[in-house]
Amino acid sequence: MPRRARLPSKPRLRPGSEPRSKAQAKRPDPLLERFLEMLQAERNASPNTQEAYQRDLKDLAAFLSVQGSTLERADAVQLRAYLGAQTKAGMAPRSQARRLSAMRQFYRFLAAEGLRSDDPAATLDAPRLGRPLPKLIDESEAGRLIDAARALKAGAERERLVLLLELLYGGGLRVSELVGLPLSAALREPKVLVLRGKGGKERMVPLGAPARSALGAYLKHRDFFLVKRRPSPWLFPSRGKGGHLTRQRMAQLLKGLASAAGIAPERLSPHVLRHAFATHLLDHGADLRSVQKMLGHADIATTQIYTHVSGERLARLVESHHPLAARDRARPGGDKAKGRDAKGRSANGRKD
């Protein structure tokens, strides 16, 4: 029988002798690592912010690699081409703006460290952003949501969900702040919660009577969520990677409750309840500066978006209930019959 010809064996590679491109793909970019370390040490950026910047800059690095360039050597033309590719791919303007922010900060860092003599991101134009109004639920829907949670079967799951809702809608917490609350923040049944929010800044959020009552009820059942009865420093312990309830699980709990409250699940998220907290406070006469402090906004301009929502509601209220508006609706044809618009202007744009 003729011998079967032996196939040439693949050469064995010693550790560290992988092909250059493969070895580079495994090795983290040292400049990117230095940038992320600076974000943490000097700006106290949250882990979520660091992950987002790392993800965006790695995506840019992959694009530049195809162009035969790197993060360190990229020029303005290549960065502009990257943003153009994102537009063609249908990326939302706000996502593009976030990536541009990561690029600007990264190249500003390189210039400040003397690693580059120029800043190629300085001349890039930001995408035009619309100003969408916050998505929210109205007061009756918020009430139905809490009622639906209280109607669940008595036990630890119910008490936790009621407290989560009270803190989201009653305190306006960010979901990352909520799930990461330390147990120490709630041990003395406080009338205020002291939070450490974005950038490590502390702020105080008052707790109303319903929230304090929900907190007391939950603490009696908290041991149910301890993993193997081990002590936990978190108010909401769980089997999650960080040892506490995750943002994703919080969103799932809300969507599961939405149907019971007669609300479309896609309309509900933790951030929707934060928006509702701010808007409903303003609807009932709260001043903008107080709402800004409770939300933890660094710039009051961020909080002012909620005044547009409240303003639209007030306009509808006047149109629906003001006696002059009612009298105008009673006339055949109303303003339109006389060629006027809703603001009382005639067809030539002048007011009588």
- Estimate the strand proportion: under 5%
Strand order of the largest sheet: 1-2
What's the CATH C level of the largest domain? Mainly Alpha
CATH topology of the largest domain: hpI Integrase, Chain A
Tell me the name of the CATH homologous superfamily of the largest domain: Intergrase catalytic core
**How many domains in all?**
2
Q: Count of helices?
A: 15
Counting DSSP E segments of at least 2 residues, the number of strands comes to 2
CATH architecture annotation name of the largest domain: Orthogonal Bundle
- Provide the residue-averaged pLDDT: 80
Helix/strand structural class: mainly alpha
Helix percent band: 40-55%
Uncertain runs are 7-26, 334-352
How would you describe what is shown here?
There is one protein chain. This protein is mainly alpha-helical. The protein has 2 domains: 87 residues, Orthogonal Bundle (DNA polymerase, domain 1); 165 residues, hpI Integrase, Chain A (Orthogonal Bundle), CATH 1.10.443.10. The chain is built from 15 helices and 2 strands. A two-stranded antiparallel sheet has the order 1-2. Helix 2 packs antiparallel against helix 3, helix 7 runs antiparallel to helix 9 and helix 7 packs across helix 11. The protein is globular. 24% of the residues are buried.
